[in-house]
Structure formats: C-alpha cells, structure tokens
Amino acid sequence: MPKVKTEKKSRIHKDVAKQGIMFNKDFGQHILKNPMIITSMLNKAALRPTDVVLEIGPGTGNMTIKLLEQVKQVIACEIDTRLVAELQKRVQGTHFQPKLKIMIGDVLKAELPFFDICVANIPYQISSPLVFKLLLHRPFFRCAVLMFQLEFAQRLVAKPGDKLYCRLSVNTQLLARVDMLMKVGKNNFRPPPKVESAVVRIEPRNPPPPIQYTEWDGLTRITFTRKK
Ligand code: SAH
C-alpha cells in the first residue's frame, strides 16, 4: 500500500491566519495588542523629543507609531519582510515616514547604529544574546525597556541568594542596573504566547567597571557550572 503523506505542520498560527497577517512562531511573533502596556513602556523609557530610538522586531508597528509621535527618529530592525511591507504601508505618505528607518534582517547579525534608547517587545528566543549585544554596544545608550519571558526577566534581576541567581544575573548586573517594571499576562498578546511576560528596564553602567569582560565571563562560567 502506498504511504499516505502527512502534511507538514504549519508554523503559522491558524487563528490569526484568517485575519490577514499570518504570524510565524519561528520568529516569535506575538503582537502586543494592549495599547496601555505600550504607553506605559514608552513612559518608563522617559523619551525625549531629540531621541533616536532602536526598536527590535516592530512587527505590524503598534509600538513604532507611538514612538514616532514622541521622538526624532526610530530605527526599527525586522527580520520578516512581510511585516516590513506592512509597516512601510502604515507610515507611507504620513509625516512619520521620514522619521522611520527600517533595517531588514536579523538584529543579532546587524551592526547596530547609534541610538539613545531601545524599546521593544522582542522575540523571546533571542533574549540572552540580544541583552549582551546591547550591553557591549558602543557608544553607550541611556536605557532599554524590553519585554521578556517572565522567568528570563526574573533571572535578569535576581540577587545573590535568590533561587534564580545565575550567570545571566551576575553578568548583566555587572554591566547594567536592572529593574523589573511590570508583569504582563498572556492575553495582552495576539496570538497569546504559552508563557507569561514581564518588562525590564536596563541602564548600562557608564563608565563600565574596569574589568576585562571576557576573562570575567570565563570565571562566572566555571563558578556557575559547579553550583550545587
Ligand atoms: N513589537 C511587535 C511585534 C513583536 S513579535 C509588537 O509588539 O506588536 C516579535 C517581532 O520580532 C516579530 O515582528 C518578528 O518577525 C521579529 N523578529 C524575530 N526574530 C528577529 C530577529 N532575529 N531580528 C529582528 N527581528 C526579529
């Protein structure tokens, strides 16, 4: 008997496919739909009209538009060309168009330009490399207000003695001041992710501590793999 071919499972969320834009799980696409959370993230970033803001993964641009209302320039880095087209369509012909610069591609591979502030609801799978890319970026930025998976956010801000205190906590807090700002439930996103989320504020220590970072990282690597 011939084998029945099973169809490869689509990674596109079915419940949103019918609404026009297909969100792709591989890119961690969960659109922040609650405007109050977007507004509160922007407020916590204490934006100035002269600021250049970096947004990672603008998606359909809900946060981008609010940023464009408040600052001089938004540089938005997006990997999905379909969403880039959506975003371009949204600003085309408006006074926002000249203020928005879109970088197409993987933010982890991109050479980041100068920016004052970073605000973003990021794809959670790149959280750790992204935090260190930002913290080692020069010249210094003022602060980053980012949405993470709740457990990752808790590890970022954990203090010595906490159960979640780990290499990520030590290394991040060496280079930055970090604050947990708010927890955000799944239903504020479309489609809702499986995990809970939280917003964290990261402020690089400027000047940085006089420590050879790669050597330090090697030390914490040894210390924390022997943790009992
Ligand atoms: N900020 C938007 C969308 C969040 S979903 C909102 O809150 O509504 C995460 C976004 O990051 C998606 O648009 C996804 O396509 C994009 N993305 C995923 N991986 C990326 C990467 N490596 N570099 C840049 N963008 C990425």
Automatic annotation (TrEMBL):
This is rRNA adenine N(6)-methyltransferase. SUPFAM superfamilies: S-adenosyl-L-methionine-dependent methyltransferases. Residues 37-206 form the Ribosomal RNA adenine methylase transferase N-terminal domain. S-adenosyl-L-methionine binds at residues 30, 32, 57, 78, 106, 121. The lineage of its organism: Eukaryota, Metazoa, Ecdysozoa, Arthropoda, Hexapoda. Transmembrane segments: none annotated. Belongs to the class I-like SAM-binding methyltransferase superfamily. rRNA adenine N(6)-methyltransferase family. It is an enzyme of class 2 (transferase). Keywords: Methyltransferase, RNA-binding, rRNA processing, S-adenosyl-L-methionine, Transferase. Specifically dimethylates two adjacent adenosines in the loop of a conserved hairpin near the 3'-end of 18S rRNA in the 40S particle. Involved in the pre-rRNA processing steps leading to small-subunit rRNA production independently of its RNA-modifying catalytic activity. Part of the small subunit (SSU) processome, first precursor of the small eukaryotic ribosomal subunit. It comes from Molorchus minor. Its EC number is 2.1.1.-. PANTHER family: DIMETHYLADENOSINE TRANSFERASE (PTHR11727), DIMETHYLADENOSINE TRANSFERASE-RELATED (PTHR11727:SF7). CDD domains: AdoMet_MTases. Coiled coil: none annotated. Part of the small subunit (SSU) processome, composed of more than 70 proteins and the RNA chaperone small nucleolar RNA (snoRNA) U3. InterPro entries: KsgA/Erm, rRNA_Ade_Mease_Trfase_CS, rRNA_Ade_methylase_Trfase_N, rRNA_adenine_dimethylase, SAM-dependent_MTases_sf.
